[in-house]
Write a structure and sequence with these properties.
Elements: H1 2-47, E1 53-55, H2 71-77, E2 80-82, H3 93-122
Parallel strand pairs: 1-2
Helix pairs in contact: 1-3
Length: 123
């Protein structure tokens, strides 16, 4: 009986570890894809000398990653371009996940392009 309980406990622990490992791997892959997408977008923006920041749409637009800075000043100094489908309405869990991905992309993009925008303004 003790052997049986020991085997069940071991199987349960191994199954738990395997599940966590798979989730961690998926997050890592998603992060790598996000960074590649951001890097590609930054390269295109620099090539085109387009230092506009991404903003959300809706009643209170924000620049993801730069919420603590004045929206109007950023809009004047760097310019803005809106993220598509980022209004106030979320209809499903899939919309919520998509919005989160867009926000993370825009946040990462904005933080990097803002530095280039400031540098370009000084030049």
């Amino acid at each position: 009986m003790k052997t049986y309980i020991g085997l069940m406990l071991s199987a349960w622990l191994l199954a738990g570890c395997a599940d966590g490992y798979g989730e961690h791997q998926n997050e890592s892959t998603t992060d790598m894809t996000l960074q590649k997408d951001v890097s590609d977008a930054i390269a295109r923006a620099v090539e085109n000398k387009d230092f506009r920041l991404y903003a959300t749409t809706g009643r209170r637009p924000v620049f993801p990653g730069l919420e603590q800075l004045d929206f109007d000043e950023l809009k004047v100094s760097c310019g803005l371009k809106y993220l598509p489908s980022t209004g106030d309405v979320i209809k499903s869990e899939q919309d919520k996940q998509q919005r989160l991905k867009q926000y993370e992309f825009a946040k990462s993009y904005n933080l990097k392009i803002y530095a280039k925008c400031k540098k370009n303004a000084k030049a």
